[in-house]
Design goal:
The protein has 486 residues and is α/β, with parallel strands linked by helices. It contains 13 helices and 20 strands. The strands form 5 sheets. Strands 1, 2, 3, 4, 5, 6, 17 and 18 form an 8-stranded mixed sheet that branches. Strands 7-16-8-9-12 form a 5-stranded parallel sheet, with helices on one face. A 3-stranded antiparallel sheet has the order 13-14-15, with no helix packed on it. The protein is globular and about 70 Å long.
């Protein structure tokens, strides 16, 4: 085992939107003594990993980008995966981050050294790197969830998760079994349908799908955005507030929610004429309990004669295909559209704080943090897109920027007061999460369905409970008196 003798001021783990934003803002404040660890070969996070056909964002492109690094020439209202990845790579180049990033370096363990007031980061290769402060920007949607189905390993055909798409497999004229009908599946299934001989789509529960108001931007619009910054800013603001108001639709008793429900049902009626198929695609839970999806071609794809929607519980997988209801559906490939392990924050990294406390022990009752950013007992420890900071109605990039600003305030406080460490007071963290969980008890995510926001213990560990502007205000107004500096 080798050891690095240099002690970095800050270590960042991950190079998605969160990690890059943190690194850029550190450089903007004049802080260049930092290192970024990336287990992949390039930057991009989820937009590097998810390269399946049809991959795109469901937040409008001018808002799904950094406020400090606008892009005037987005090709569509909703950007496609290659364009988002190109944008992130552009940010890394422009702000000269690649000299700070160590690619192909996975962090396996992080241990806080109480005597030194710093973190020892153990790489998977056995190296130890020390940093005074560490920012985990691993995201919530980075570890694919493989379904636990009897006989899965018996299957002899091609199989892969949508987040690890096998581009060497040619699905043209093949029989494809797709397990799962979530946000990724509604994007890649229509692409499969164009070339595959047969598509068997296995659905556990129907999703609420509404139309996607998408189109290419015209050359004239791009010129306006490029030459008139105030128009671009005004447009971005309009997108933000029109998205923000959608939070009201998450109240099942609101007129906006009823309108959303009508829109979803109308979308099904307009594109699915078969009453049996229409019934299968009609959700039996309130709109918003699970992630609301947007698509203009999903229902049309499922109405094709060579597509079969199968609902219920899968019995097993055999050497040749998938068994449901006692019938075997032979397939050349099985593709999992089953989402991610979303509630196991920071896993599989082992993290040890003060007095040897393992993060898993601290989170035995479910993941939580103060503002979703800091954690008592884990000094100089910060998270981006941490517990209860996910949104169902707006851009996560907005939340990340608010979190980064708060982290910079914490770091500045340590330096200005000539202290070594900072962490939230336990009673502050406990009170914050008690109020947060109380506000989530009657939220739409907690009634009527199973979703990826709630852990096995029934705790909503993922979603923010209010408007995104209220979260930004809270992270901005929170005083350093909420923290212990030592």
């Amino acid at each position: 085992m080798s050891s690095s003798h240099k002690i970095f001021e800050v270590a960042i783990i991950g190079t998605g939107f969160g990690g890059l934003c943190m690194a850029i803002q550190l450089k903007k404040t004049g802080q260049n003594d930092f290192i970024v660890f990336e287990k992949g070969t390039t930057v991009g996070g989820t937009w590097r990993d998810n390269t399946y056909p049809g991959a795109a964002c469901d937040v409008k492109s001018h808002l799904y980008s950094f406020s400090f690094e606008p892009k005037a020439d987005w090709s569509h209202k909703y950007a496609r995966q290659p364009e988002i990845l190109d944008y992130l790579e552009h940010c890394a180049r422009k702000y000269e981050l690649n000299t700070h990033i160590r690619f192909n370096t996975e962090i396996a363990r992080a241990v806080f050294d109480e005597a030194a007031g710093s973190w020892n980061l153990h790489t998977a290769a056995g190296e130890i790197v020390t940093a005074r402060m560490v920012v985990f920007a691993c995201g919530q949607l980075n570890r694919p969830l493989i379904p636990q189905i009897p006989g899965l390993d018996l299957y002899k055909g091609t199989r892969f998760h949508s987040a690890r798409w096998d581009h060497s497999f040619d699905y043209a004229h093949k029989k494809i079994a797709v397990i799962g009908t979530g946000a990724s599946a509604i994007q890649f299934v229509p692409e499969l349908v164009k070339k595959a001989a047969q598509v068997f789509l296995f659905q556990r529960s129907a999703a609420w799908v509404i139309p996607k108001n998408d189109r290419p931007y015209t050359p004239f619009e791009k010129k306006l955005f490029a030459h008139f910054g105030w128009i671009r800013k005004l447009y971005r603001s309009w997108i933000y507030w029109s998205s923000e108001i959608r939070f009201l639709a998450l109240n099942p008793n609101s007129p906006i929610h009823r309108g959303l429900t009508r829109l979803g049902l109308k979308h099904i009626r307009e594109h699915v004429s078969d009453p049996v198929l229409r019934q299968k695609l009609t959700p039996d839970y309130p709109a918003g309990c699970k992630r609301i999806l947007i698509s203009n071609n999903y229902y049309q794809a499922l109405a094709q004669p060579h597509v079969q929607l199968l609902t219920g519980q899968i019995d097993s997988v055999t050497e040749r295909g998938v068994v449901m209801g006692g019938r075997e559906y032979e397939a050349d490939a099985i593709i999992y559209g089953t989402g991610f392990q979303s509630t196991g924050f920071l896993s599989p990294i082992r993290i040890t704080g003060r007095q040897g406390v393992d993060l898993n022990e601290a989170w035995t009752q479910g993941a939580e943090a103060y503002l979703g950013i800091t954690l008592a007992g884990f000094p100089n420890f910060f998270m981006l897109y941490g517990p209860n900071t996910n949104l169902s109605h707006n851009s996560i990039v907005f939340m990340i920027e608010a979190q980064v600003r708060h982290i910079l305030r914490c770091m500045s406080a340590v330096k200005e007061r000539q202290k070594q460490t900072i962490e939230p007071k336990r009673e502050v963290q406990a009170s914050y999460n008690r109020i947060l969980q109380d506000s989530l008890k009657n939220a739409i995510w907690s009634v009527g369905c199973r979703n990826w926001y709630i852990d096995k213990g029934g705790k909503n560990t993922n979603n923010w409970s209010g408007f995104s502007f209220s979260y930004r205000r809270m992270t901005r107004k929170t005083g350093i008196e909420k923290y212990v500096l030592a």
